[in-house]
Design brief:
23% of the residues lie in helices and 15% in strands. The protein is built from two helices and five strands. It has helices at residues 28-44, 86-97; strands at residues 4-8, 48-52, 68-70, 75-77, 103-105.
């Protein structure tokens, strides 16, 4: 069962983030309101929430799940495929390391975005 969650507060340049669809420019006020509702939902689930400060260097840093794969035993720092996202990993590292004694990292030439990973359960040794 999850006990903690981490999210990044949307920066004022959130609209400069990567996208694959043309839905228009995001409305920052709406984004902040949605983020607040999301955080409230996490707290309602009784999760201890860590909210990271906005990071103007990385417009996509709101999406913390892309930077790290978290397991009960260790954190695995990703190496995103998009070069513009790779700085986010270094930026979030101190916050993640405050919760994990054991960490690993995907190294060149490997790439993975944590948001593309889904835990499917335990592997049986039988």
């Amino acid at each position: 069962m999850f006990k903690r969650a981490m999210c990044g507060f949307p920066a004022s340049n959130f609209a400069d983030g990567l996208t694959t669809v043309d839905l228009g420019v995001p409305d920052l006020d709406a984004v902040v309101k949605q983020h607040s509702t999301y955080c409230a939902g996490l707290r309602e689930c009784r999760l201890e929430l860590t909210v990271l400060e906005p990071d103007l260097r990385h417009p996509d840093s709101t999406f913390v799940e892309d930077t790290t794969i978290l397991t009960p035993e260790a954190a695995i720092f990703c190496r995103p495929g998009a070069a513009t996202l790779q700085g986010e990993v270094a930026a979030i590292r101190p916050a993640v390391e405050s919760f994990y004694a054991s960490t690993f990292a995907i190294e060149t030439p490997g790439t993975v975005d944590g948001g593309d990973i889904c835990e499917a359960g335990q592997v049986s040794s039988e």
